[in-house]
Structure prediction request, 368 residues.
Amino acid sequence: MSRCSDLPISFAPFAVNSATAAFHGTSPRHSLPLAIANRTFYPAAMGKRGFTLVVSLMACLTALCQPSGKTVWEIDLHQFGNVHYTHARVWFWGNYIVVEPSPDFCSELNRQNYKRTYIGLTAFDEPLPPLPEHTVVLDLATRAPVSRDVLKDAAAARAANCPQVQGWWWGGQLRDDIPAAWGRSLLRRNGQGGLYLDRAGQPEAVFCSSCMEEKPIVRAAAPERVLLAAVTDYTVTEARIVDLQAREQFRLDLKGARNPYVVFNTTGTRFAVIWPYQSHLGHVRYWLDDFTSSGGGITFDRKTMKVFSAVDGEKLFEKTWHKDEADVDTVGDADQRVALSDDGSLLAYIGHGSKLVVWHLAPAKKGH
Prediction:
Protein backbone atom coordinates (compact mmCIF):
# COMPACT_ATOMS: atom_id res chain seq x y z
CA MET A 1 0.00 0.00 0.00
CA SER A 2 1.44 3.32 -1.03
CA ARG A 3 1.87 6.05 1.52
CA CYS A 4 1.94 9.80 0.96
CA SER A 5 5.57 9.94 2.04
CA ASP A 6 6.46 7.44 -0.69
CA LEU A 7 5.04 9.50 -3.55
CA PRO A 8 6.93 12.21 -5.50
CA ILE A 9 4.26 14.80 -4.81
CA SER A 10 3.73 17.39 -2.13
CA PHE A 11 0.75 19.60 -1.57
CA ALA A 12 -1.26 21.11 1.24
CA PRO A 13 -5.04 20.65 1.31
CA PHE A 14 -6.98 23.36 -0.50
CA ALA A 15 -9.05 23.84 2.65
CA VAL A 16 -8.89 22.52 6.19
CA ASN A 17 -12.04 22.11 8.24
CA SER A 18 -11.88 24.58 11.11
CA ALA A 19 -13.43 22.03 13.48
CA THR A 20 -10.32 19.86 13.23
CA ALA A 21 -7.81 22.69 12.94
CA ALA A 22 -7.10 22.85 16.68
CA PHE A 23 -5.90 19.26 16.84
CA HIS A 24 -4.23 19.07 13.44
CA GLY A 25 -2.27 22.27 14.02
CA THR A 26 -3.59 23.83 10.81
CA SER A 27 -5.89 26.64 9.83
CA PRO A 28 -8.27 27.09 6.90
CA ARG A 29 -6.19 28.29 3.96
CA HIS A 30 -5.46 27.82 0.27
CA SER A 31 -2.12 26.50 -0.84
CA LEU A 32 -0.34 26.89 -4.16
CA PRO A 33 1.84 26.03 -6.00
CA LEU A 34 1.90 22.25 -6.38
CA ALA A 35 5.14 20.24 -6.53
CA ILE A 36 5.26 16.96 -8.44
CA ALA A 37 8.44 14.98 -8.97
CA ASN A 38 10.51 17.96 -7.82
CA ARG A 39 8.94 20.25 -10.42
CA THR A 40 6.71 23.21 -9.55
CA PHE A 41 3.40 23.81 -11.30
CA TYR A 42 0.98 26.68 -11.00
CA PRO A 43 -2.52 25.26 -11.62
CA ALA A 44 -4.03 28.73 -12.09
CA ALA A 45 -1.79 29.21 -15.15
CA MET A 46 -2.50 25.80 -16.68
CA GLY A 47 -5.89 26.52 -18.12
CA LYS A 48 -9.08 24.60 -17.45
CA ARG A 49 -7.92 21.22 -18.77
CA GLY A 50 -4.57 21.36 -16.98
CA PHE A 51 -6.17 22.39 -13.73
CA THR A 52 -8.72 19.56 -13.99
CA LEU A 53 -5.92 17.04 -14.62
CA VAL A 54 -3.95 18.20 -11.57
CA VAL A 55 -6.98 18.16 -9.29
CA SER A 56 -7.86 14.64 -10.49
CA LEU A 57 -4.29 13.48 -9.80
CA MET A 58 -4.42 14.96 -6.32
CA ALA A 59 -7.74 13.26 -5.57
CA CYS A 60 -6.41 9.93 -6.78
CA LEU A 61 -3.24 10.15 -4.71
CA THR A 62 -5.20 11.27 -1.65
CA ALA A 63 -7.40 8.18 -1.96
CA LEU A 64 -4.33 5.97 -2.16
CA CYS A 65 -2.85 7.58 0.92
CA GLN A 66 -5.93 7.38 3.12
CA PRO A 67 -5.50 3.79 4.40
CA SER A 68 -2.10 4.72 5.83
CA GLY A 69 -3.54 7.54 7.94
CA LYS A 70 -2.10 10.99 8.52
CA THR A 71 0.46 11.70 11.21
CA VAL A 72 -0.84 14.70 13.10
CA TRP A 73 1.24 14.69 16.23
CA GLU A 74 4.61 13.45 17.48
CA ILE A 75 6.00 14.14 20.95
CA ASP A 76 9.06 12.99 22.87
CA LEU A 77 7.92 11.64 26.23
CA HIS A 78 11.37 12.09 27.77
CA GLN A 79 10.62 15.75 28.29
CA PHE A 80 8.20 14.79 31.07
CA GLY A 81 10.83 13.07 33.19
CA ASN A 82 13.67 10.58 33.15
CA VAL A 83 11.38 7.62 32.57
CA HIS A 84 11.86 4.76 30.11
CA TYR A 85 8.55 4.17 28.33
CA THR A 86 9.31 0.77 26.79
CA HIS A 87 6.80 -0.81 29.17
CA ALA A 88 4.37 2.11 29.00
CA ARG A 89 0.66 2.02 28.37
CA VAL A 90 -1.34 4.56 26.33
CA TRP A 91 -5.11 5.14 26.36
CA PHE A 92 -7.72 7.75 25.47
CA TRP A 93 -10.30 9.39 27.69
CA GLY A 94 -12.55 12.04 26.21
CA ASN A 95 -10.39 15.01 25.19
CA TYR A 96 -7.25 13.54 26.73
CA ILE A 97 -4.59 11.01 25.90
CA VAL A 98 -2.98 9.27 28.87
CA VAL A 99 0.47 7.65 29.06
CA GLU A 100 1.23 5.48 32.07
CA PRO A 101 4.89 4.47 32.49
CA SER A 102 3.84 1.02 33.75
CA PRO A 103 1.46 -1.69 32.47
CA ASP A 104 0.78 -3.01 35.99
CA PHE A 105 -2.83 -1.81 36.16
CA CYS A 106 -3.94 -3.86 33.15
CA SER A 107 -1.89 -6.86 34.18
CA GLU A 108 -3.58 -6.88 37.59
CA LEU A 109 -7.06 -6.37 36.11
CA ASN A 110 -6.58 -9.32 33.77
CA ARG A 111 -5.20 -11.42 36.61
CA GLN A 112 -8.43 -10.76 38.52
CA ASN A 113 -10.46 -11.83 35.48
CA TYR A 114 -8.56 -15.12 35.48
CA LYS A 115 -8.86 -15.51 39.24
CA ARG A 116 -12.64 -15.04 39.33
CA THR A 117 -13.01 -18.28 37.31
CA TYR A 118 -12.22 -20.19 40.49
CA ILE A 119 -13.02 -17.85 43.40
CA GLY A 120 -15.93 -15.90 41.89
CA LEU A 121 -16.68 -12.21 41.56
CA THR A 122 -14.88 -11.40 44.82
CA ALA A 123 -11.67 -11.47 42.74
CA PHE A 124 -12.64 -8.02 41.45
CA ASP A 125 -12.79 -6.63 45.00
CA GLU A 126 -9.00 -6.59 45.25
CA PRO A 127 -7.46 -3.10 44.93
CA LEU A 128 -5.95 -2.07 41.60
CA PRO A 129 -2.71 -0.08 41.22
CA PRO A 130 -3.21 3.71 41.33
CA LEU A 131 -1.98 5.98 38.56
CA PRO A 132 1.83 5.90 38.55
CA GLU A 133 3.65 9.02 39.65
CA HIS A 134 5.00 9.85 36.20
CA THR A 135 1.70 9.42 34.32
CA VAL A 136 1.42 12.00 31.53
CA VAL A 137 -1.97 13.46 30.57
CA LEU A 138 -2.11 15.49 27.35
CA ASP A 139 -4.96 17.68 26.16
CA LEU A 140 -5.81 16.69 22.58
CA ALA A 141 -6.81 20.22 21.60
CA THR A 142 -3.78 22.08 22.97
CA ARG A 143 -1.29 19.16 22.94
CA ALA A 144 -0.13 20.43 26.33
CA PRO A 145 0.23 18.43 29.55
CA VAL A 146 -2.48 18.89 32.17
CA SER A 147 -2.90 17.79 35.78
CA ARG A 148 -3.75 14.15 36.51
CA ASP A 149 -6.69 15.51 38.49
CA VAL A 150 -8.72 15.58 35.27
CA LEU A 151 -8.81 11.76 35.51
CA LYS A 152 -10.61 11.67 38.86
CA ASP A 153 -13.73 10.21 37.17
CA ALA A 154 -11.88 8.05 34.64
CA ALA A 155 -11.60 4.81 36.63
CA ALA A 156 -14.10 2.91 34.47
CA ALA A 157 -12.49 4.15 31.25
CA ARG A 158 -9.04 3.22 32.53
CA ALA A 159 -10.21 -0.37 32.92
CA ALA A 160 -12.26 -0.47 29.71
CA ASN A 161 -9.20 0.60 27.69
CA CYS A 162 -7.01 -2.28 28.90
CA PRO A 163 -5.88 -4.64 26.13
CA GLN A 164 -6.83 -8.29 26.36
CA VAL A 165 -4.75 -11.18 27.61
CA GLN A 166 -3.35 -12.85 24.50
CA GLY A 167 -0.21 -14.79 25.31
CA TRP A 168 2.47 -15.72 27.82
CA TRP A 169 4.03 -12.22 27.73
CA TRP A 170 1.22 -10.98 29.98
CA GLY A 171 3.08 -11.25 33.29
CA GLY A 172 3.33 -15.02 33.27
CA GLN A 173 -0.44 -15.38 33.70
CA LEU A 174 -0.88 -17.88 30.87
CA ARG A 175 -3.60 -20.48 31.27
CA ASP A 176 -3.78 -23.07 28.53
CA ASP A 177 -7.54 -23.39 28.94
CA ILE A 178 -8.13 -19.67 28.20
CA PRO A 179 -6.95 -18.56 24.71
CA ALA A 180 -8.40 -15.04 25.03
CA ALA A 181 -9.65 -12.81 27.85
CA TRP A 182 -10.79 -9.18 27.81
CA GLY A 183 -12.50 -6.96 30.38
CA ARG A 184 -14.67 -9.30 32.45
CA SER A 185 -15.10 -11.80 29.63
CA LEU A 186 -13.06 -14.77 28.45
CA LEU A 187 -13.17 -17.77 26.15
CA ARG A 188 -12.43 -21.10 27.80
CA ARG A 189 -11.73 -24.46 26.21
CA ASN A 190 -14.36 -27.16 26.81
CA GLY A 191 -11.89 -30.05 26.50
CA GLN A 192 -13.58 -31.35 23.34
CA GLY A 193 -12.27 -28.97 20.67
CA GLY A 194 -14.70 -26.16 21.43
CA LEU A 195 -14.96 -23.01 23.51
CA TYR A 196 -17.24 -21.62 26.20
CA LEU A 197 -17.98 -17.91 26.49
CA ASP A 198 -17.56 -16.99 30.16
CA ARG A 199 -18.77 -13.51 31.20
CA ALA A 200 -18.60 -12.45 34.82
CA GLY A 201 -21.99 -12.72 36.51
CA GLN A 202 -23.63 -14.48 33.54
CA PRO A 203 -24.26 -18.17 32.79
CA GLU A 204 -21.59 -19.87 30.72
CA ALA A 205 -22.58 -20.18 27.05
CA VAL A 206 -21.35 -22.35 24.19
CA PHE A 207 -19.21 -20.30 21.80
CA CYS A 208 -18.34 -23.12 19.40
CA SER A 209 -18.29 -26.90 19.49
CA SER A 210 -15.25 -27.67 17.32
CA CYS A 211 -13.53 -24.41 16.30
CA MET A 212 -10.36 -25.26 18.28
CA GLU A 213 -9.62 -28.56 16.58
CA GLU A 214 -7.21 -26.92 14.12
CA LYS A 215 -5.59 -24.85 16.92
CA PRO A 216 -6.33 -21.39 15.54
CA ILE A 217 -5.20 -18.10 17.06
CA VAL A 218 -8.08 -16.62 19.07
CA ARG A 219 -8.30 -12.88 19.79
CA ALA A 220 -11.13 -10.54 20.77
CA ALA A 221 -11.55 -7.95 17.99
CA ALA A 222 -14.34 -5.94 19.68
CA PRO A 223 -16.50 -6.42 22.79
CA GLU A 224 -18.85 -8.52 20.62
CA ARG A 225 -16.47 -9.84 17.95
CA VAL A 226 -13.73 -12.50 17.89
CA LEU A 227 -10.88 -13.09 15.46
CA LEU A 228 -10.25 -16.75 14.57
CA ALA A 229 -7.08 -17.21 12.51
CA ALA A 230 -5.90 -20.47 10.97
CA VAL A 231 -2.12 -20.83 11.23
CA THR A 232 0.71 -22.88 9.78
CA ASP A 233 4.06 -22.69 11.59
CA TYR A 234 2.69 -19.80 13.72
CA THR A 235 1.87 -17.80 10.56
CA VAL A 236 -1.70 -16.80 9.72
CA THR A 237 -3.04 -18.36 6.52
CA GLU A 238 -6.69 -17.40 6.88
CA ALA A 239 -8.55 -15.07 9.25
CA ARG A 240 -12.22 -14.44 9.92
CA ILE A 241 -14.25 -12.34 12.30
CA VAL A 242 -17.14 -14.04 14.09
CA ASP A 243 -19.77 -12.90 16.60
CA LEU A 244 -20.17 -14.33 20.10
CA GLN A 245 -22.09 -17.29 18.67
CA ALA A 246 -19.14 -18.02 16.34
CA ARG A 247 -21.14 -16.98 13.26
CA GLU A 248 -18.84 -15.61 10.56
CA GLN A 249 -19.25 -11.90 9.81
CA PHE A 250 -16.46 -11.40 7.28
CA ARG A 251 -12.98 -12.54 6.21
CA LEU A 252 -9.85 -10.53 6.95
CA ASP A 253 -6.58 -10.21 5.03
CA LEU A 254 -3.94 -11.12 7.63
CA LYS A 255 -1.88 -13.57 5.63
CA GLY A 256 1.69 -13.67 6.93
CA ALA A 257 0.89 -12.28 10.38
CA ARG A 258 2.69 -14.08 13.21
CA ASN A 259 1.22 -14.33 16.72
CA PRO A 260 -0.63 -11.01 16.34
CA TYR A 261 -1.73 -8.69 19.11
CA VAL A 262 -5.21 -7.18 18.73
CA VAL A 263 -6.38 -3.89 20.29
CA PHE A 264 -9.89 -2.49 19.84
CA ASN A 265 -11.61 0.75 20.78
CA THR A 266 -14.17 0.84 23.60
CA THR A 267 -17.10 1.30 21.23
CA GLY A 268 -16.11 -1.76 19.22
CA THR A 269 -16.08 -0.09 15.81
CA ARG A 270 -12.39 -0.50 14.93
CA PHE A 271 -9.47 -2.71 15.88
CA ALA A 272 -5.71 -2.72 15.34
CA VAL A 273 -3.63 -5.81 14.62
CA ILE A 274 0.10 -5.65 15.42
CA TRP A 275 2.79 -8.24 14.91
CA PRO A 276 6.57 -7.97 15.30
CA TYR A 277 8.46 -10.56 13.32
CA GLN A 278 11.79 -11.54 11.82
CA SER A 279 12.38 -11.10 8.08
CA HIS A 280 14.34 -13.68 6.08
CA LEU A 281 17.28 -11.30 5.91
CA GLY A 282 16.98 -10.65 9.63
CA HIS A 283 17.00 -14.37 10.33
CA VAL A 284 20.32 -14.74 8.49
CA ARG A 285 21.74 -11.63 10.13
CA TYR A 286 20.92 -12.70 13.66
CA TRP A 287 22.04 -16.28 13.02
CA LEU A 288 25.42 -14.92 11.97
CA ASP A 289 25.46 -12.68 15.05
CA ASP A 290 24.82 -15.66 17.30
CA PHE A 291 27.44 -17.71 15.47
CA THR A 292 30.17 -15.09 15.62
CA SER A 293 29.54 -13.77 19.14
CA SER A 294 28.11 -14.82 22.45
CA GLY A 295 24.57 -14.71 21.06
CA GLY A 296 21.69 -12.71 22.41
CA GLY A 297 20.83 -11.10 19.07
CA ILE A 298 17.52 -9.29 18.74
CA THR A 299 14.75 -11.57 17.48
CA PHE A 300 12.64 -9.03 15.60
CA ASP A 301 13.57 -6.67 12.78
CA ARG A 302 10.13 -5.88 11.37
CA LYS A 303 6.76 -4.86 12.76
CA THR A 304 3.47 -4.34 10.95
CA MET A 305 0.31 -2.66 12.22
CA LYS A 306 -3.06 -2.58 10.45
CA VAL A 307 -6.35 -1.04 11.50
CA PHE A 308 -9.68 -2.45 10.34
CA SER A 309 -13.35 -1.63 10.64
CA ALA A 310 -15.05 -4.09 13.01
CA VAL A 311 -18.22 -3.70 10.94
CA ASP A 312 -17.05 -5.07 7.60
CA GLY A 313 -13.26 -5.51 7.73
CA GLU A 314 -12.35 -2.48 5.63
CA LYS A 315 -8.63 -1.71 6.06
CA LEU A 316 -8.14 1.84 7.29
CA PHE A 317 -4.43 1.96 8.09
CA GLU A 318 -1.25 0.01 7.41
CA LYS A 319 2.36 0.65 8.37
CA THR A 320 5.50 -1.48 8.59
CA TRP A 321 8.55 -0.51 10.62
CA HIS A 322 12.12 -1.79 10.35
CA LYS A 323 14.74 -2.55 13.00
CA ASP A 324 14.38 -0.19 15.97
CA GLU A 325 10.60 -0.19 16.14
CA ALA A 326 10.61 -3.98 16.02
CA ASP A 327 13.45 -4.30 18.54
CA VAL A 328 11.44 -2.59 21.25
CA ASP A 329 8.86 -5.40 21.25
CA THR A 330 11.40 -7.95 22.46
CA VAL A 331 11.09 -6.40 25.94
CA GLY A 332 7.73 -4.57 25.90
CA ASP A 333 4.08 -5.35 25.30
CA ALA A 334 3.16 -4.05 21.84
CA ASP A 335 -0.55 -4.02 22.62
CA GLN A 336 -0.16 -1.81 25.72
CA ARG A 337 1.57 0.85 23.60
CA VAL A 338 -1.22 1.10 21.01
CA ALA A 339 -4.65 2.68 21.49
CA LEU A 340 -7.64 3.79 19.45
CA SER A 341 -9.86 6.66 20.51
CA ASP A 342 -13.46 5.86 21.43
CA ASP A 343 -14.74 6.97 18.04
CA GLY A 344 -11.84 5.28 16.23
CA SER A 345 -10.67 8.45 14.50
CA LEU A 346 -7.30 8.60 16.28
CA LEU A 347 -4.58 5.97 16.62
CA ALA A 348 -1.85 6.43 19.24
CA TYR A 349 1.44 4.53 19.40
CA ILE A 350 4.44 4.70 21.73
CA GLY A 351 7.46 3.65 19.76
CA HIS A 352 11.21 3.38 19.88
CA GLY A 353 12.90 6.14 21.84
CA SER A 354 9.73 6.81 23.87
CA LYS A 355 8.14 8.83 21.09
CA LEU A 356 4.35 9.16 21.13
CA VAL A 357 2.84 9.32 17.63
CA VAL A 358 -0.82 10.04 16.89
CA TRP A 359 -2.43 9.41 13.51
CA HIS A 360 -5.75 10.63 12.22
CA LEU A 361 -7.53 7.75 10.46
CA ALA A 362 -9.57 8.32 7.35
CA PRO A 363 -13.33 7.83 7.62
CA ALA A 364 -14.51 4.42 6.47
CA LYS A 365 -16.31 4.27 3.14
CA LYS A 366 -19.54 3.24 4.87
CA GLY A 367 -19.23 5.79 7.65
CA HIS A 368 -18.04 3.60 10.54
Q: What stands out?
A: The two ends are 21 Å apart (CA to CA). Residues 1-41, 53-67 have pLDDT under 50 and may be disordered.
